[in-house]
């Protein structure tokens, strides 16, 4: 159903009026594609902020109204994978992996997930989102502490998108699950495990390579359209600490649509800090 207003589908974020973080998605008017007031929108920090102000009068659009057609997604060219697939000695995320895993296994997982290195920030990592048909949807650039493996969030959150770094105009971002290009290496009897962060998917792939490990990239990105290529597979989702209830509700909806999917309570039952995930627990 189409509504008069909707959350901005692009990757653009603003400062949240509640928590002050640059994690706020504004509502737009569908017919004009213009933003509403700066306080009308949703903060992506659902667990820590949960601010969400919806526009008034957001009624379904009748057949006589203009309905904006969905935009065709933009893909990166394949050569970006090779161009950024280098300089791993200076990649701080790879340096973190070297503390825990053998060089041969790290080389294998770099190739498996097409991990890249970016000079956008010194030692930054590129996580490419490549779908099961090998279309390169996006590249997420993040900077990690090479000793702890934590993302660098001070003095600001070091996260960006390659289409912004490369200054590609009018790029239409349509995300897919990180790692889903590896689906071709697994048969329909395989178990697919989904976590939130790309780091955790890679770490778990090193620890339990018999499963296909994927990442949503954010708590809110566990969506039906991203799961469609996995119809028929056994799926287990592993939410971060304190996110179990939200993902469990989504999983039940997916079950009702015929997906063979369960939501793990493993991390939720442990005495760990908010936001902890499988990688934090096992390493």
TrEMBL record:
InterPro entries: DUF6371, Zinc_ribbon_put. It comes from the Bacteria. Residues 91-241 form the DUF6371 domain. Residues 3-56 form the Zinc beta-ribbon finger putative domain. NCBIfam families: PG0870_Nterm. This is DUF6371 domain-containing protein. It comes from Winogradskyella pulchriflava.
């Amino acid at each position: 159903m189409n509504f008069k207003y909707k959350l901005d589908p692009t990757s653009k974020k603003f400062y949240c009026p509640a928590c002050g973080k640059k994690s706020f998605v504004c509502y737009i008017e569908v017919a004009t594609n213009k933003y509403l007031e700066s306080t009308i929108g949703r903060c992506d920090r659902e667990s820590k902020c949960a601010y969400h102000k919806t526009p008034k009068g957001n009624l379904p659009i009748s057949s006589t109204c203009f309905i904006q057609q969905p935009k065709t997604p933009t893909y990166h060219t394949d050569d970006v994978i090779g161009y950024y697939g280098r300089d791993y000695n200076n990649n701080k995320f790879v340096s973190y992996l070297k503390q825990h895993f053998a060089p041969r296994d790290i080389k294998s997982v770099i190739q498996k997930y097409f991990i890249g290195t970016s000079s956008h920030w010194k030692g930054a990592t590129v996580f490419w989102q490549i779908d099961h048909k090998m279309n390169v949807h996006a590249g997420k650039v993040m900077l990690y502490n090479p000793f702890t493996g934590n993302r660098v969030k001070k003095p600001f959150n070091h996260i960006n998108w390659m289409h912004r770094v490369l200054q590609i105009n009018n790029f239409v971002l349509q995300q897919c699950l990180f790692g889903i290009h590896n689906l071709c290496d697994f048969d329909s009897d395989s178990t697919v495990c989904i976590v939130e962060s790309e780091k955790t998917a890679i770490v778990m792939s090193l620890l339990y390579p018999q499963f296909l490990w994927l990442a949503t990239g954010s708590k809110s990105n566990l969506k039906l359209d991203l799961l469609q290529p996995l119809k028929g597979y056994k799926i287990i989702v592993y939410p971060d600490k304190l996110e179990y209830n939200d993902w469990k509700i989504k999983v039940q909806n997916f079950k009702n649509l015929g997906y063979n999917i369960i939501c793990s309570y493993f991390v939720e039952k442990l005495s760990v800090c908010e936001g902890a995930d499988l990688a934090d627990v096992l390493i």
